[in-house]
């Protein structure tokens, strides 16, 4: 188990005046991120999720950490782009600034399915839904970046699973894919590669915003515990020596969201704050540009 030297309780500076949005904040790393940020007096924390009762638990736990915390839950279904778009518009309506968007919500190796908008479900949730949220929130992020003494960021959770992808087959995104064990994991790899490539493109198109992708480490969260038995055994056998708990797993995204100097725009980081490994596909500039152009076209109806 890695012994990370980064300590959120002492290494995160005061977050006064800063507004954070955490997707998937009702459980796992998302909830832990909310709780750790709450300790440092942010101006506001907004978080999304689907489960209202779970959201109430997040709010209650955050209020114990910081009784005066301004915390807002916005229910959102990331399988529906209309739902994501509506939440993005509501954030614009209710906030004068947004300093950090933490794209934490996601699924892993789930059975073959499509979203309500007919995208392969892992790619639809892990990439397309978050890309739409970024698109809607960009005016607010840019406005915040123009203020003095600000460092606006988009932090996307990816995984070392990206290494299993040789490149994203965008022509197959509107189909559920194979239901086999291998099919599920290859689709996950494609979605995680997309997170890395999209961060690179965000940095290119919006250099005033620091956009990074991070690997949190191997954590046994609900993403793993909800998998079929064979998949859980596979994860355990291939990662048991690397597994960490949520208190360590949350550190990389907290570092990327709040560290001062040293967070490189467009980079991929492994825990904690270490430039991550690469593959031919993750260094494919033309592949990244193709993903960007395709995503822009798919989301054009949400102008």
From TrEMBL:
Transmembrane segments: none annotated. Belongs to the short-chain dehydrogenases/reductases (SDR) family. It holds the Pfam family adh_short. Signal peptide: none annotated. GO terms for molecular function: oxidoreductase activity. This is Short-chain dehydrogenase/ reductase-like protein. It comes from the Eukaryota. It comes from Amniculicola lignicola CBS 123094. Keywords: Oxidoreductase. The lineage of its organism: Eukaryota, Fungi, Dikarya, Ascomycota, Pezizomycotina. Gene3D superfamilies: NAD(P)-binding Rossmann-like Domain (3.40.50.720).
């Amino acid at each position: 188990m890695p012994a990370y030297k980064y300590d959120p309780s002492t290494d995160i500076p005061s977050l006064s005046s800063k507004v954070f949005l955490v997707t998937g904040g009702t459980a796992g790393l998302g909830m832990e991120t909310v709780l750790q940020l709450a300790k440092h007096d942010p101006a506001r924390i907004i978080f999304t999720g689907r489960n209202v009762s779970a959201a109430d638990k997040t709010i209650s736990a955050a209020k114990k950490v910081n009784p005066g915390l301004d915390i807002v839950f916005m229910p959102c279904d990331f399988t529906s782009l209309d739902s994501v778009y509506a939440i993005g518009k509501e954030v614009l309506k209710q906030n004068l600034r947004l300093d950090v968007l933490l794209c934490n919500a996601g699924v892993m190796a789930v059975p073959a399915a499509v979203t309500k908008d007919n995208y392969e479900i892992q790619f639809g949730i892990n990439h397309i839904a978050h890309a739409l949220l970024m698109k809607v929130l960009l005016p607010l992020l840019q406005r915040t970046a123009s203020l003095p003494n600000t460092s606006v960021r988009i932090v996307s959770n990816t995984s070392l699973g990206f290494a299993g992808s040789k490149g994203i087959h965008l022509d197959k995104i509107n189909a559920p894919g194979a239901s086999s064990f291998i099919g599920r994991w290859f689709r996950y790899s494609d979605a995680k590669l997309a997170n890395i490539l999209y961060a690179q493109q965000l940095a290119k198109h919006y250099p005033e915003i620091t956009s990074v992708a991070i690997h949190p480490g191997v954590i046994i969260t609900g993403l793993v515990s909800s998998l079929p038995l064979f998949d859980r055994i596979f994860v355990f056998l291939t990662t048991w020596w690397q597994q960490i708990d949520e208190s360590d797993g949350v550190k990389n995204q907290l570092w990327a969201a709040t560290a001062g100097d040293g967070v490189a725009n467009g980079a991929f980081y492994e825990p904690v704050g270490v430039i991550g490994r690469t593959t031919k596909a993750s260094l494919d500039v033309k592949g990244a540009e193709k993903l960007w152009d395709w995503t822009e076209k798919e989301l054009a109806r949400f102008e």
